[in-house]
Amino acid sequence: MTKLNKVCVIDDDEIFVFAFKKILKISRFCEEVTVFYNGEEALDGLQNTNEVQALDLIFLDINMPIMDGWGFLENFEKRKIDKNIPIYMLTSSIDKFDQVRAQNYELVSKYLVKPLTVEDLATLEV
Asked: Is 81 within 8 Å of 58 (Cβ atoms)?
């Protein structure tokens, strides 16, 4: 597994985020983790081109208040970004409709169902 520099987690569940950051650290998956708790906060936080260019991967939840994962994707794909940043939908939704919908976005590289373990991280192609 290649160690990434900077990963972004967009998820409103603070307990999940806390645990997932621990998993990322234990697995030595990345050097740095940036967290946003909804899609709108992420879009605001990622307005700086340099901030976006520094990202290697985004883990995105679907169900969040204010702006959900779908809203984030709709707005994020409108931006002109020179770098291909893989987005992994990381959600508790096992709804087939959500899985199919995620495939309609070129930005979405993979659909993952929570929880994600250290072993699962090791199998990701990044």
From this structure: no
Q: How far apart are CA 72 and CA 39, in angstroms?
A: 5
Give residue-wise pLDDT tens across range 48-69: 877 888 899 999 999 999 999 9
Tokens 């697995």 -> residue: 27
* Domains in the chain: ranges and CATH: 13-94+105-116 (3.40.50.2300)
Nearest to 88 by CA among 55, 65, 54, 46: 55
Other C-beta atoms within 10 Å of 83: how many?
10
C-alpha dist (Å) from residue 58 to 85, 87, 94: 7, 5, 20
- How does the average pLDDT of the chain come out, rounded? 91
